[in-house]
Design brief:
The chain is of the alpha+beta class. The protein contains five helices and 13 strands. The protein starts with a strand and ends in a 5-residue tail after the last strand.
Length: about 290
């Protein structure tokens, strides 16, 4: 008789990342010489990855065509002989990274760009009373992450930056980054026409200026970064995992390694947002 082996949770959605860009230093709070800035009336560039940016609306710029947030779009059981039933209770669950996670390479000091880990990686999936949560520690040593050897950081790092037009287009429906900038210009102009607050107007004018730079040069990294993808694939092994009891199924294994695999891409330098898509696999007790 077929037995449940793994819980598969697939997720996707738009997140916010207010980050300075080279050649600005990692801790530049407003943006000086890169191509991302904190404009008038906005909070600092804090580098925090926000999978649920609607929780902190001050970090979300107006004029977005996206529905913000990363959510479970598929929840099903994998049996030992093939696909199994759906788990409706986790479909649409919010996916979040807790503890103010950041991409950590510190301007090439820790890792190469595109090969940085997310620290901390404390993954939470929640839907009403159902909650999954587990930390992926870099190792079992207490020293801070910036003192850890590069090989330890690389165990949870992204696997490089690749330009994948098809990946981005299929996932987001946005195939033409230059056209996106044309559409954004129209959106920003419309917002500016109706905005009366002088601080908000200054912010919109600054965004229009940056958007125009991208329109004037199709090879500008404001455009080309849209097609870039960073991929992550590692195990989550932290102690004290939180697992729910799923009706009609055996208990989830809170001790064995969980596999997480995802990519980030479709970078939007105006909205400071990126698309995330991936999956989490959690074994059931007794399935190994």
């Amino acid at each position: 008789m077929s037995q449940p082996k793994t819980l598969l949770l697939c997720f996707k959605g738009w997140s916010v990342l207010r980050i300075p860009t080279d050649p600005d230093p990692t801790d530049e709070p407003r943006g000086a010489s890169g191509y991302t800035f904190a404009f008038a009336g906005e909070p600092n560039l804090d580098r925090i990855i926000r999978f649920q940016p609607q929780k902190t609306p001050e970090n979300v710029r107006p004029g977005s065509p996206y529905e913000w947030g990363v959510f479970v779009n598929q929840a099903r059981v994998l049996m030992d002989d093939g696909p199994g039933p759906n788990v409706d209770g986790l479909l649409g669950a919010s996916v979040d990274l807790c503890g103010e996670p950041k991409l950590e390479n510190r301007n090439w000091l820790l890792t190469l760009p595109g090969w940085e880990p997310i620290v901390p990686f404390d993954l939470q999936i929640k839907q009403n009373e159902l909650e999954l949560r587990r930390l992926a520690p870099l190792d079992d040593k207490p020293n801070p992450y910036w003192k850890k050897p590069e090989d330890v950081l690389m165990n949870q790092a992204a696997k490089g930056v690749y330009y994948e037009h098809e990946t981005i287009g299929t996932a987001t429906g946005i195939w033409d980054a230059h056209l996106l900038r044309v559409q954004r210009k129209a959106t920003l102009r419309k917002l500016l026409e109706h905005e009366r607050d002088p601080v908000a107007r200054s912010c919109l004018q600054s965004r229009l200026y940056e958007n125009q730079i991208a329109l004037d040069n199709v090879n500008d990294r404001r455009v080309q970064a849209h097609y870039a993808v960073e991929r992550f694939d590692f195990s989550i092994t932290g102690a004290n995992a939180i697992v729910p009891r799923l009706p009609g199924l055996p208990a989830l294994d809170a001790q064995s390694a969980w596999g997480v695999s995802f990519w980030c891409g479709a970078w939007d330098c105006d909205l400071l947002g990126m698309y995330v898509q991936g999956s989490l696999q959690i074994p059931f007790l007794g399935s190994s």
